[in-house]
Write a structure and sequence with these properties.
By secondary structure, the protein is an alpha+beta fold. Helix content is about 20%, strand content about 30%. It has a domain of about 30 residues. The chain contains one helix and three strands; from the N terminus they run E-E-H-E. The protein starts with a strand and ends with a strand.
């Protein structure tokens, strides 16, 4: 299984790791920056796996 990291374009937010598109959708919808505002853009990075 592949592992990815979603890096926010917002410097006041932290990123998160995910394995499936469903995990990404669930986490990104609820992800907020340090001011409580929703994060709108992420850069997806491939971390580990076969693809």
């Amino acid at each position: 299984m592949n592992i990815y990291h979603a890096t926010p374009c917002d410097i006041s937010a932290t990123g998160f790791y995910f394995k499936t598109y469903e995990e990404y959708c669930q986490e990104s919808k609820a992800h907020n920056n340090s001011y409580g505002q929703p994060v709108e853009k992420f850069e997806i990075q491939f971390i580990d796996g076969e693809n």
